[in-house]
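Justification of resources, computational component.

The compute hours requested in this renewal are based largely on the per-chain cost of generating structure records like the one below. Each record pairs the submitted sequence with a full structure-token output. That output is archived, and it is also reused by downstream analysis tasks.
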Amino acid sequence: QVQPVESGGGLVQPGVSLRLACAASGHTLDYYAVGWFRQAPGKEREGVAYSSRTDGSRHVADPVKGRFTISRDNSQNTVYLQMNNLKPDDTAMYYCAAAESILFDWADPDEYDYWGQGTQVTVSS
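The structure output for this chain reads:
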């Protein structure tokens, strides 16, 4: 089984960029659909972006569309979340998750099998 490990979070000012990385141990991420989620204090975990394991399709949630991009580097066994023009509302713990099966709803956390520990992103002036 795969174990996702997130990195790249931090404290940044509004308008700057961050790139989060999801590396994997135990198995190659090629075999998994990968999703990025975030959870702010007092809020539910929400899907941010998704990369299919089968057809190369990608999805980005509406609140971050045009600012966030998901990509894979199979040579590094890593999935990235590029976040541009960060806003205070983007402040949250960001999680990487992997799924073995074809997903019906990529933004549903219950459809994922393996989760990382998360990396904190704080956007504040």
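The chain is about 0% helix and 45% strand. The longest strand covers residues 18-25.
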